[in-house]
């Protein structure tokens, strides 16, 4: 049986994708994207978890055999920052779009096609 | 109230920051202390101008004593407030009588006004909606007196006797 | 079990109670102003209880150290300072974004104040003319 | 540098130099040199080839092994290309207008040489492309829609060939003709005994079909001929001499290769009917249809360029019939006709080039009475007309006669009928050309027309001479052709062709003809003093010939024929292709607007659908 | 010779990008010349790396921080990376020069930084030997590409960038899920070690992980239908950037895809992934060619053409044979040259004549003969005429496709090529035989650049042997996973 | 509605597929290979107590350099896209005295805490990114409270650039001293702080890099905030 | 006494309860208030987790979280009243 963390992570990914697939407002789509990223990060973290072990900071009595995998945590740190960067870019592009098109409805933002 | 000298303001800022550092690290390791001092000096240099006008004058014994005395007083008020909240939340009829009232304060300093506002927010049935000069606009969950004087008497005055001393 | 853990746990227990109270208030109150009335206070007090409680509780454990207490105090003070500020900012936002008071509200002095101010100024004040104040706040 | 490479690349290099120089006269000279060099080398290498040797050359290049060989067969085709190419280049010296034309005309000549000298499929394909590209650029300069049509069909043909080659390569592991031949031969043998063959029946059909398309396009086989009339007419007519005379022969050459490399295998797979391989019938009957369609349409043209363009198509039909029949005799006959067609059609197009160069006119209605003004050109035309019409003792007769004999000897009356019909319709359009251009009343604006310029005249001269020489001494050609097969399929002497069931002696006929002409001349000169009447001053039934009458032969002369054929003329493959193209474009538009609809959400759905496919695929 | 200096290929663009803010006071032109200088330096280093790798025949393994793989992240400059990093640098250098003339929109300093980081990202994607690091470099590439796509700050540019962001975001999220699965199964992120252990993986995990990674990369690699962002981005981006997109950004994604596919060839479902990819690649070619057919905007038309060529490369890589990979790499090189030239010329024409609509190209042969010449050479090369470079690689791809037995794919791809021939034909006709106009003075530097690229096209077309031998070595680098594993000095963690 | 339904069905299938994949990677199981190596060797090889930090800065330093770059790109990109010849704050309502005063009191503390976070990166969770984000929050508060506040742009941009260069330079010094880019020469060559593991002055170049990152991230995020918060002023 | 697990569970429940308002609204400020409360409670939860795991270092995480949450809430609040 799949763990609740995995389940939550996949659920977040799917919820995010759902927002991207059905929401008409660009900001909601971007929020969907962020939710998806969050889900992925949660998944990464969950993958590195080892039952009964603690954070991989080898102080306060935690030794190498009592810590969880440090790699996914390191990866998630990177992934989070990348997510922030993407979101920042996306928001400024959205601002630009709003400035030029006066709308954030994706049905109307389609001057480029064909 | 005049502005204190830059050095005084800077030193005051550094002292406060270093104290916070001590609380954060709770360590007497010289490496920590040294870096704490260094960082306090650096951060203080960037921020003392917005942090304080009074500088070291804030550290007068009287003010500190009143500040310490204010803590239990305030906590008590806060606990009362929360029991009041508990009553209203848990009562099936939700007995409320809300509105926005105006109060006046005698406090002059900005920090004093902030403390008053926060105190009001955290105590029985009131939240500071806006402050304009000495006029406080307060959302009151159970309006007992909608006049300025009545409201002030109910809401601001209990705190002012402490705050006036602490912040002037 | 020692006194410190006992005191700490009691505080945590009380804090937890207020946390739940806070979220209930959030659900039960009729409008945003009254939700804030109930939720902010109990969440803040709950935090004080839980956080300081943890600090004290930790002192009584084998891994505890003074740092637990000092750090929790820093966190608690931070919340004590910021929670009313954010409540204030939020209620202002609620009011200024045009959310009406609950229909049972009895008085609105702030509306009167704003209207008087507008009449006096003739036009809304240009925010650009208010420069950042130099110097501290005391 | 190897002599084969010199033959192949001399024209291209000359073309690039001419293009880069871009100085009048110098570029013409360079171009001519570029055409002379390969021809000289081919002549120089004749003794070697005559001795039954092949000259081989292998180059490792671009990670492939390229094989070249000068065999008896390729020497004949290359000679044809060299001669007609030189004549065309001479013509271009008069008619070409820019260095652009020099570059691409010579590039296509390189392509042609490359095709004939390649000894592997890939080299063949590459030079095929080079030739196509060069000729395409020549057409592009003159006419967009003509070049587009030519281009699309050529590209389709080339890609068809590439796929066929690729399939062969995938199995054989080599492009070399020898290895491909061996593989197919082995496969054929295996197939006979019911063994596991390298290529399946379906693959053989596909390969054959693909090559059929590839070579059919280039040869102008019905129904892939639609590009040819426009392309031949919409370019420099001197170049068309080469285009129609030589380039189209690469298709013919391709069919011959097809026979050589995989004839056995195809026969083994698909069997024979009355000793003719079944796949050959396809080629032969397509050729027959091509004769008829090309001939009829030629008769209906109002533009001399178009007339000869359709005529070319029709003539290629003869060759395909011959090759399709596939007997030793018929293949030799086919090649023979390829040569004679190159010679007379090359000559025709140079004549057309001269007419256009001097008059600026292309339609019958604007012409007439040019014989008087352009006697030399008229003399050339006389040779060409006789040759095409298949009148002895010109080369056209010899080859047509051979084809007819070859077809009849295989007991194929329908094909024979088609060939005969082609000859008949050939007379029809030639008569019109003869009268409408050279005789009758001359429009007044043509009164100052001059005869052919020197380079063109030389070019025409070379071709006319060969038309006569090979007509009088057909054995010269036949002897070379026999060497391909390796036995005397066509017997006889230099002057005489003997195929057992019939004989044709060119010299004898010439002698009779000359005697006849002498008699006629004597009668003419000894006869009553005839009043010299200008061709324009003609009476008919006692009435002066009016311009209206004069025009009848020049304008819509074959209108009744057109009306009779109106039902068939409405069936236009050209239009069919156009409709297909239009449909494709509309479909492309719809697809583009539907797929790239501009909505980011749709695009996100594409991603989601791919995810779904991945999930469902169980990947 | 120790190859650690190859880390400069990462360090130089980075430090230069960080330096730009300090240069801001010196003016726009100073920044542009700085950009040229940095790309030139990068080209020099790349040439050095190229020279070392191809003379010694040994890859350069850069071990960041001195940690041996799989403990540390390593860069792998094998034959492929050495070749392509050089191409990235050279194209960047040319486009830096082009930027001098073509970039007028402010803020130039930001443009320069993003430009350098785009180059850096592609370099890193090609060089890295670590699957998560690949993700990081992919994001560097993608995010700078997002920003550069919108750089012109028109509505269209913002729209295009947004599409790119949304699709790229979905792609990278799923890529990361794939990485998570593979990491969860193997406990390592090093590509060589993944390849080594691939056979031991849980087959379901391997299937899902591989599929997701390919999915994520396919968005960057412009595989249909994940490429819907691309035409818009190509059209809206500043001209030099479009050239870079086509010349190396997409190729980095494509390469990464190929690399990972071949690393995972021991995975059970490998064959079916390839099959699916063959289908998608073929569709990419067909749809893109059809979409280009009646395109009125020449830049967009060439964008579609570029996508189609990418599809062809993807097809080659998806064949799963050495000859396919070699042909794909060869085509990558050729396409990089041709498309750099085309976008350079078309971009220059568009900025000179005020737009890339086909009407603007009327009479170009007379107005801007150099650009017309370059566009013609590019068009002819793309169509695959002998004596031009693409002919060789295209033929090789077709032959390789037929060798594997995907006759249908070869037929469809060639049918699409007919369509390609038609629209390029129309373009050529418009350029040379329609319209008229005064001759315009063409910029010397840009003229020299297009001539240089055109010369490359023809020289490779006439003498493909050298480049083909490079392509073979580079292809072997991708295909021969055993030697890849052998070359990476894995320190045996967990063994 | 149909679309929503389709989306849900599609997502459920995809989700099921992902779950199937994840089933092969059981939750909570020890799947470490390289990870265990890090845990076993981190203290001795890098001097860091926080293995995550060691992974981030030392073992996978390349990722982190890339991460820094990504954020730099975002800040540059936002700056490029929202660039206007003249920009200005467009706030209409002033922050009340509660907010302004609160901000004045909080900013020094928040900044100090930010530095605390990145300087302790090798000992505690956190490091350059959260530290930088914390510092940026201080600037955010200033923007929120004071409607005319602006960060010193020139200085920030230069700091950002210098910090980035600093990071690369540290790496290049590693290349010069130890022969490898991003080589931790402080720990591995100088053996500085070996007796201090668990205390502040240890962890090789981690504190240096985290300081650089902290400053860089702080200035970058502030720059992004600035870029987004302001609007064009028509001249 | 009762045990830390119970507190953790109860606080988690409180967090979830406040989520109700986040989704329910009805106004944006309602959601914001709920988020504010939620973050406050979550801060407490994190502190309690630090105790649960016996790892003081998590307290730093809680403080960072509180700071970022405060900044975020103020930002949204100011945005709502047009103060950006
Ligand atoms: Na709060
Ligand atoms: Na809070």
From TrEMBL, chain C:
Keyword Transmembrane: yes
Keywords assigned by UniProt, alphabetized: Membrane, Transmembrane, Transmembrane helix
Database matches in NCBIfam families: CPA3_mnhG_phaG, PRK12674.1-2
Protein species of origin: Thermococcus thioreducens
Region (Disordered): 116-138
Transmembrane annotation, as ranges: 6-27, 39-60, 72-91
PANTHER family given in the database record: ANTIPORTER SUBUNIT MNHG2-RELATED
Name of protein: Membrane bound protein complex subunit mbxC
Record carries keyword Transmembrane: yes
InterPro entries named in the record: PhaG_MnhG_YufB (IPR005133)
Domain of life where this protein originates: Archaea
Entry GO MF terms: sodium:proton antiporter activity
Lineage: Archaea, Methanobacteriati, Methanobacteriota, Thermococci, Thermococcales
UniProtKB/TrEMBL annotation, chain E:
GO CC list: plasma membrane
Keyword entries, A-Z: Cell membrane, Membrane, Transmembrane, Transmembrane helix
Keyword Hydrolase set for record: no
Name of the featured protein: Membrane bound protein complex subunit mbxH
Subcellular location per the Swiss-Prot or TrEMBL entry: Cell membrane
InterPro entries: CPA3_Na-H_Antiporter_D, ND/Mrp_TM
Record flagged with keyword Cell membrane: yes
Stretches assigned to the NADH:quinone oxidoreductase/Mrp antiporter transmembrane domain: 130-418
Membrane-topology descriptor: Multi-pass membrane protein
Broad class of where this protein is predominantly found: membrane
Native species: Thermococcus thioreducens
PANTHER family: NA(+)_H(+) ANTIPORTER SUBUNIT D1, NADH DEHYDROGENASE
Membrane spanning stretches: 6-23, 30-53, 73-99, 111-128, 164-186, 206-229, 241-264, 270-290, 302-320, 340-358, 370-392, 404-423, 444-463
From TrEMBL, chain F:
Compartments it resides in: Cell membrane
Domain of life: Archaea
Topology term for the membrane: Multi-pass membrane protein
Transmembrane segments: 65-83, 95-119, 131-149, 161-183, 203-225
GO CC field: plasma membrane
Coiled coil: none
Protein name, as recorded: Cation:proton antiporter
The organism's taxonomic lineage, starting at the top: Archaea, Methanobacteriati, Methanobacteriota, Thermococci, Thermococcales
UniProtKB/TrEMBL annotation, chain G:
Bilayer-crossing regions: 6-23, 32-51, 57-77
The keyword Transmembrane appears for this protein: yes
InterPro entries: MrpF/PhaF-like (IPR007208)
Pfam families tied to this protein: MrpF_PhaF
An example Gene Ontology CC term for this record: plasma membrane
GO molecular function annotation: sodium:proton antiporter activity
Alphabetized UniProt keyword annotations: Cell membrane, Membrane, Transmembrane, Transmembrane helix, Transport
Keyword set includes Flavoprotein: no
Membrane topology classification: Multi-pass membrane protein
Subcellular compartments: Cell membrane
Name under which the protein is recorded: Cation:proton antiporter
